[in-house]
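Project channel, design review

CF: Before we commit to the Pseudomonas shahriarae constructs, I'd like one complete example in the thread so the newer folks can see what an input/output pair looks like. Taking Alpha/beta hydrolase.
RD: sounds good, go ahead.
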Amino acid sequence: MPLDPDLEGFLELAEMGRLSGKSQPMHQLTPQAARAEFDLTSQILDPSPPGAINVSALQVPTRDGQLLAARLYRKIGTEQSVLPVILYFHGGGYVLGSLDSHDSICRRLAASGRHAVLAPAYRLAPEHPFPAAVNDAVDSANWLAREGAVLQLDPLKVTLAGDSAGATLATVLAISAVQHPEEMVLKPQAQLLFYPVADTQRTRPSHQRYAEGFLLESKTLQWFYRHYTPDAEQRGDWRTSPLLTQGLTTLAPAYISLAEYDPLYDEGLEYADLLKNTGTSVTLLTQNGLTHDFLRMSGITGDIVNIYSAVDSWLALH
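CF: and here is what came back for Alpha/beta hydrolase:
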């Protein structure tokens, strides 16, 4: 399917900025500069997220004694109700992304009032390379299992979710809940995976097809991986490349939503097939005409509202 015309116009403007020298490819920036630029894009991609949301600032303790900033999102009027919860991890290649950059996604997931959304800010590379993000994600999940009831959250009704690298963290938790129950107390009832990173070790045809000009670039992916896994052998670890997981068995039902114009598209399809082969219930969708990061694009194209609606309908059944 052709690229969404509104998104195509946005990408053309971005390319003009690059050609004029006003902007640079992300992989040519320092992590600090790339983070600042990435956070600013949220105001352009989704300038008017739902406002009728109660947002609470929290702190999540980690195994090394640090505290992670986190936010809890609930539709106004549900504060006294015990709600199922979506544990959401933001994307950004383990190098970028923040509670601010993905605030609009969390608001939209919480807007129906069907679920609360808990979003922890795991630590980023290169300051905190692998396995810091994984450890922070596990600690966040276990904290939710212990403390959720105090926050009017149902720790027995948790959906693990994320986009891009955040979706990879969600997959790692879902796998850990089955394969490493001694480490992972929380037992999820479902997974929401948006354009996950499934294999940091090997490239596929979609990495060449959409290498440049479709928002996420293949060179940027490699830039992410070098920061997060400076030792190339770490990219063979199943926690960075879930496609390499050995002995995988049935996991919580998964909703996998991929972008047609995304370097990660092929590995997303492979991961969906891997889950299906374990007997895991998989709902797989390709968002035609869209690129990586489409969840943050409600201000660019009208198609995104239907994506959130479909997610909400699926969650109502799981």
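RD: helpful, thanks. The two ends are 30 Å apart (CA to CA).
CF: The mean pLDDT is 95.
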